[in-house]
């Protein structure tokens, strides 16, 4: 497949692209600094800035089968990047008829009742931005979305084993998140699903296969 990755120089994105290349997909790596994208003959770097308008973005994200949204502003630009940037990419997916849309999100993005937990207080604005984007994806588009809600990211070595949904624990290795994102496109039962994940004890493919 031909796959567009939005935010291609991010930590998750770089690991995701490696996994997708291993699956023999062709990647269009959308980044603000395309010259920094790791060179590979199956990866085409392109410049993209989520501040651009929909018309501009629709000329960049085109002729692909799948979009991954793995960009984020580290809370520095939540409205324009994490919230409205994501929404503009969804609109581009609609305009350019790219129905498969995979969003990397956070564990409680669609559960505002959990944001008042003191441990999550510092993430309030971030959660609101992710809520805006995820809620739009689920309720205002007809895209074949999958939202992967990861708990906190760590730079530990991937175990290739995860827990999903009710079993989700506190942390994720970036490698496990990237591998799970890459595997999602091989499991059609992940379409129109919001999946919470963390490191765990079940092989990634088996965990995704168990989704009903
Ligand atoms: N950190 C956590 O614990 C956690 C937990 C769950 C989910 N998440 C989600 O996972 C996402 C990815 O995490 P990560 O660690 O891979 O993030 P990261 O390393 O900060 O990567 C984010 C990427 O987004 C790009 N970006 C930022 N603003 C942009 C814009 N206006 N236009 C285009 N690209 C833009 C950045 O580009 P530059 O390289 O040019 O700066 C960067 O490459 C986060 O954004 C967050 O939503 C994070």
Structure description:
There is one protein chain. Helices cover 33% and strands 25% of the residues. It is α/β, with parallel strands linked by helices. It has one domain (2-209): Rossmann fold (3-Layer(aba) Sandwich), CATH 3.40.50. The strands form two sheets. The chain has a nine-stranded mixed β-sheet with strand order 3-2-1-4-5-6-10-8-11, sandwiched between helices. A two-stranded parallel sheet has the order 7-9. Helix 2 (54-60) crosses helix 3 (78-95). The two termini are 25 Å apart. The structure holds NADP nicotinamide-adenine-dinucleotide phosphate. NADP nicotinamide-adenine-dinucleotide phosphate (NAP) binds next to helix 1, helix 3, strand 5 and strand 7.
CATH architecture descriptor: 3-Layer(aba) Sandwich
CATH topology: Rossmann fold
- Total of helices: 6
Please give the CATH class. Answer: Alpha Beta
CATH superfamily: NAD(P)-binding Rossmann-like Domain
Question: How would you sum up the global shape?
Answer: globular
Bound molecules: NADP nicotinamide-adenine-dinucleotide phosphate
Gyration radius, in Å: 16 Å
Q: Could you tell me the number of beta strands?
A: 11
Helix-and-strand structural type = alpha/beta
Give the termini distance in whole angstroms.
25 Å
């Amino acid at each position: 497949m031909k796959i567009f990755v939005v935010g291609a120089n991010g930590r998750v994105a770089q690991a995701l692209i490696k996994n997708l290349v291993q699956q023999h997909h062709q990647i269009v790596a959308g980044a603000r600094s395309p010259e920094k994208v790791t060179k590979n003959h199956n990866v085409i770097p392109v410049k993209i800035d989520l501040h651009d308008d929909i018309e501009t973005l629709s000329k960049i994200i085109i002729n692909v089968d799948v979009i991954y949204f793995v960009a984020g502003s580290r809370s520095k630009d939540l409205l324009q990047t994490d919230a409205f940037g994501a929404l503009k990419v969804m609109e581009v997916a609609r305009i350019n008829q790219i129905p498969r849309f995979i969003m990397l999100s956070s564990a409680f993005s669609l559960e505002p009742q959990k944001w008042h937990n003191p441990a999550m207080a510092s993430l309030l604005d971030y959660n609101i931005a992710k809520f805006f984007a995820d809620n739009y994806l689920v309720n205002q588009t007809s895209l074949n979305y999958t939202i992967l809600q990861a708990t906190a990211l760590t730079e530990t070595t991937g175990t290739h084993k995860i827990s999903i949904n009710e079993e989700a624990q506190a942390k994720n290795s970036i490698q496990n998140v990237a591998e799970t994102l890459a595997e999602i496109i091989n499991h059609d039962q992940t379409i129109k699903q919001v999946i919470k994940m963390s490191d765990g004890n079940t092989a990634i493919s088996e965990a995704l296969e168990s989704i009903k």
